[in-house]
Amino acid sequence: MRIIEYLTSWEYNYLLIVIGILIITMILTRFSIWMINRSLHSAIEKSKVAPTHHHFLKNAVALLWWVFALIVIIYVIPSFRNLAVALFASAGVLLAILGLAGQQALSNIFSGIFIVIFKPFHVGDFVTVADKYTGTVEDITLRHTVIINFENRRVIIPNSVVSAEVVINSSISDQKICKSVVFEISYESNIDLAKKIIQEEAEKHPLSIDNPIKQDKKQGVDAFRVFVVGFGDSSVKLKGWVWAANPYAAFDMHYDLNQSVKERFEKEGIEIPYPHRTILYKDHISNKST
Predict the structure, then answer these.
(1) I need a labelling partner for 5 at 20 to 30 A (CA). Which of 62, 82, 120, 175 fits?
(2) pTM (2 d.p.)
(3) 172-202: pLDDT as tens digits
(4) pLDDT at residue 3, as a whole number
C-alpha cells in the first residue's frame, strides 16, 4: 500500500493498465489452449494430427499472445514507447545486443521447428539422445525437449542440442526390438550345452517373441540364435539375440535372462570363470638364469 501512495495519478493508471493487459493475456492464452484442445482432440484420436504438433502448437500460441501483450504495453505507456523509439534509433547497437543475447534462444526455437517438421521423433516415442539420455518423449516446446527416464525424472534438453546429436528412436514404424545378451564361460565348459541353455531360457521367457526376418524364416533359422563372438583371457564369449515387443519389455527381459541363465549354468555345470592372473617373480627368474 505504501508503494501505491507514492505513485502519481497517471502512474497509478498505467499500473492498472499493465495489470489489466497481463490478466487479459492470461485469459486469452488459456482460452486459446482450451480451443486448441477441443478442436484437435477428435483429430488426434483419429490420427489426423500428431500429439507432437498439438504440444508444439499450444506452446507457440502462448508465446505469441505474450509477445503481443509486451508490444501493447510498450505502445500504451509513453515512457516505454520513448525508450523503444530510442533503442530502434540505434538499431545497429540493438541488433548486436539482441544477436548476442538471443543467439542460443533463436537456435533452440528454430531447432524445435525443424524437429516438428522433419519428425525425427514424436511425443510418446522411446529415444536415446547423444547415447546418454534414454526415455520417453513427454513434450517438445519452443526451447527444449522433455524426456522421462526410467527413474521417472524429466530430462530437459535444449532443442539445439537434440538437433546436433545422434538420436536413436526405438518407436519409429516398429517398436519391436532385438536385444543382445552376452555371457562368458570357461574354456573347459561345453559350448554347445551353454548355447542350448541360453536358447531355452530365451524361448520360455514370457516377454520374448518369435520375430526372425523373412529370409531366416525361409531358411528355417532359429528365432533365438547364439554365437561364439570372441575369446577373453580366461573365457569364451557367447552372444545371443532375443526379440521383445518394445524397449521396456526388452530391458526387463534382459535382466531376467541374466539371472535365469546363470542359475541354469550352475545346475548344468557350466562355469562362469573368475579372472586369472599369472604372476612371475623377478628374483625367481634371475636365480633360474644363473
Answers:
(1) 82
(2) 0.57
(3) 777 888 888 999 999 999 999 999 999 999 9
(4) 46
Burial of residue 290, with CB atoms counted within 10 A of its CB: 0-12 exposed, 13-18 middle, 19 or more buried: exposed
How is residue 24 written as a grid cell?
487479459
